[in-house]
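Input structure tokens:
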């Protein structure tokens, strides 16, 4: 029997729906960053990964040009991932605190990671049209992740994308939509949505997001998911 998440992952990897994103991700993969010039870049869309029985879903913005777009796994091989996987490890969701490439032995327990947009975008800024073209993949992942009870959204972009998905699925949502903030909690019939600043260098270098702040989010996520 075919694993539905694996089948969806294969479909995502083959996607060429957004010409601007296809051109950019492939250009980056050809030209490379000097530090990675001897590596073969992935240069394709990035599927989600993790525990199919996860109660926690983490949703990011999009792969980094020289992170996921290079390694083939979201948040893998970049500074944002260093922060995220470190926090997941400390919270008991990951078996190791770092992730450098997609075959490095990282295993997630009770957690699954995905993104609103699956291709690395220029300037790390997908258009709304690109987001909406990509969102059906996250819809289908969420449908398959039937045990998810908590969804941590990393940043306002991911929050808005998830809100659109839940609303489109007929989930009863509060009106008006609560404004995104770090530590936000919104209880919905599908899952509790938890807001977290994105662990980008822009946020971590400036102190807008600290390790204790990130740890608090995942400690709270575990509490909300039932321990």
């Amino acid at each position: 029997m075919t694993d539905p998440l694996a089948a969806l992952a294969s479909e995502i990897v083959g996607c060429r729906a957004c010409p601007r994103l296809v051109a950019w991700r492939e250009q980056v993969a050809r030209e490379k960053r000097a530090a990675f010039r001897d590596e073969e870049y992935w240069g394709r869309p990035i599927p989600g990964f993790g525990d199919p029985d996860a109660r926690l879903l983490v949703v990011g913005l999009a792969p980094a040009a020289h992170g996921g777009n290079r390694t083939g796994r979201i948040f893998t091989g970049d500074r944002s991932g260093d922060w995220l996987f470190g926090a997941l490890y400390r919270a008991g969701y990951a078996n190791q605190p770092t992730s450098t490439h997609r075959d490095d032995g990282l295993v997630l327990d009770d957690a699954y990671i995905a993104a609103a947009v699956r291709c690395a975008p220029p300037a790390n800024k997908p258009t709304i049209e690109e987001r909406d073209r990509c969102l059906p993949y996250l819809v289908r992942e969420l449908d398959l992740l039937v045990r998810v009870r908590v969804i941590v959204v990393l940043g306002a972009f991911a929050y808005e994308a998830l809100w659109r998905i839940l609303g489109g699925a007929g989930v009863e949502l509060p009106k008006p939509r609560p404004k995104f903030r770090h530590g936000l909690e919104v209880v919905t019939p599908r899952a509790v949505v938890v807001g977290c600043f994105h662990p980008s260098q822009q946020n971590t270098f400036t102190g807008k997001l600290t390790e204790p702040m990130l740890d608090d989010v995942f400690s709270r996520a575990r509490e909300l998911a039932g321990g």
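The mean pLDDT is 96. The radius of gyration is 16 Å.
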